[in-house]
Amino acid sequence: YVSNPADVVSLNQHVKVKVISVDIARKRIQLSMRQLGD
């Protein structure tokens, strides 16, 4: 869990992520950089 994305990535930095879940009711998405298997 990352509370502040700026701790992990920089502004305008391109990263590959995997969409883990989409919560339409709460307007949230859960992403993972770890589960890509690179």
The coarse silhouette is: globular
Number of helices: 0
CA-to-CA gap between the ends? Answer: 20 Å
Number-wise, the strands total: 2
Portion of residues in beta strands equals 25-35%
| Helix amount | under 10%
Number of spatially distinct domains: 1
Which class best fits the helix and strand makeup? mainly beta
Radius of gyration (CA) equals: 11 Å
Q: Which residue ranges are poorly predicted, with pLDDT under 50 across at least 5 consecutive positions?
A: none
Strand order of the largest sheet: 1-2
Largest sheet: 2 strands, antiparallel
SSE ordering: EE
Mean pLDDT across all amino acids: 89
Describe, in plain words, how this protein is organized in 3D.
The protein is mostly beta strands. It has strands at 18-23, 28-32. Strands 1-2 form a two-stranded antiparallel ribbon. It is globular. The mean pLDDT is 89.
Summary keywords:
38 residues, mainly beta, 29% strand, two-stranded antiparallel ribbon
List the helices and strands and how they pair.
Blueprint: E1 18-23, E2 28-32
